[in-house]
Amino acid sequence: MTTQIKHHVVALMLGVLSYACPALQGQISFVSGEISGSETWSGTIAMVGDVTVKPTGSLTILPGTRIEADWRSDEMAGGTNQNRIELIVQGALSAEGTEGAPIVFTVFPGNPPQTLAAGDWYGLRVASQQVRLRHCVVEYGTVGLSVESGDPLIEHCRFEKNQRGLLVGAGLEVTLSQSEVVGSTGVGIQGSRDGKLTLEGCRLLRNSQGIEWVRDLILTGSGSVISSNTQYGVLVQRKFDLTLTGCEVRGNGLTGCAESRRLVRHGGQPGGLHHRHTGRRVIIGTGT
User: Fold this and answer.
1) What residues form DSSP beta bridges with 34?
2) pLDDT digits (tens, 9 = 90+) for 24-76
3) Helices and strands (H, E) in the chain, number of each type
4) Under 8 Å between Cβ of 255 and 232
5) Burial zone of 276 (CB within 10 Å; 0-12 exposed, 13-18 middle, 19+ buried)
6) CA nearest 180: which of 162, 199, 204, 208?
7) Judging by beta carbons within 10 Å of its beta carbon (0-12, 13-18, 19+), is residue 178 exposed, middle or buried?
8) Which residues contact 9 (CB under 8 A, 6 or more apart)?
9) 191 to 69, 188, 236: CA distances (angstroms)
10) Which of 20, 132, 183, 216 could form a disulfide with 153 if both were Cys (CB 3.0 to 4.6 A apart)?
11) Average pLDDT estimate for 211-231
């Protein structure tokens, strides 16, 4: 990767990504390209194009780091969307912030500043068993987090104002703990088939839809809230197995079938709910 680290009018060119220069700490680092070794990000990172952590690469992001993607552009012109910047992880990613110093993935509004909106950059794409996200905020993406393979650790994270909060690949198991998916213009969490989704102390609020799955979803929730979504709380096209304990699925926009209303009424009661359905279309979490 070729990286420019700017310090006022001085630019230091590095042949391989490196942020070990103490004199430049606190400055903005401009990055794009590939990481094949071990790298650390801190301070403010300006992504001007796609960054790919290769299978041999390892990226550590320190607490309080702010990663800003260029607004609606991609100098690499690669990835899933050639006009939007992506952080692609095929190797190891450790992004572990703290409650007081979260790691923020967002967009640089430009000069002059633009009004930011969902889809101004693409987001994170992970295809690895070595991904750890704690106390992270991901906002304004096409997809905040796309899980293409692996089982990332996701704790105390917030996915906000994305087109889709999370996209889960076929046959994968994903667990969210103490996390929020809020304000997606589309679906909060979307999957295709044969998936297992576990929500532990999570909140899915004010999305267009809370959860949407094509088929064969095993959904387990404890202490979670799916509420105030414009359309459905949970929409599964075909076959699901649902277990909710101490959860609230309420106040979502569209009216569902009788079965949907029954699930809403009992889903938040002590002792929880287990329900299995093998029909073609099920809507859960609608009405009030």
Assistant:
1) 52
2) 445 799 999 999 999 999 999 999 999 999 999 999 999 999 999 999 999 99
3) 1, 27
4) no
5) exposed
6) 204
7) middle
8) none
9) 26, 10, 10
10) 132
11) 89
The band of 214, judged by pLDDT with boundaries at 50, 70 and 90, is confident
CA angle (188, 191, 196) in 5-degree steps: 105
> Domain locations in the chain?
1-18+26-162, 190-288
Structure tokens at 138: 């991901």
Coil/strand/helix, residue 119: coil
Q: Kindly write down the DSSP assignment for every residue of 220-255, as one continuous string.
A: EEES-EEE--SS-SEEEEEEEEEEEES-EEE-BSS-
DSSP designation for 200? E
Spatial CB neighbours of 260, under 8 Å, sequence gap ≥ 6: 282, 283, 284, 285, 286, 287
Q: Which tokens in the block code for residue 121?
A: 């950059």
- pTM for the structure as a whole: 0.84
Rounded Cα distance between 16 and 37, Å, is 9
Residue 170: pLDDT above 80? yes
Q: Copy the structure tokens of residue 32.
A: 């794009």
Q: How far is CA 233 from CA 108, 153, 199, in A?
A: 32, 24, 14
**Which DSSP helix (H) or strand (E) runs through 261?**
helix 258-267
Is residue 41 within 8 Å of residue 84, measured between CB atoms? no
Residue 49, both tokens: 């194009």
Residue 133: helix, strand or coil by DSSP? strand
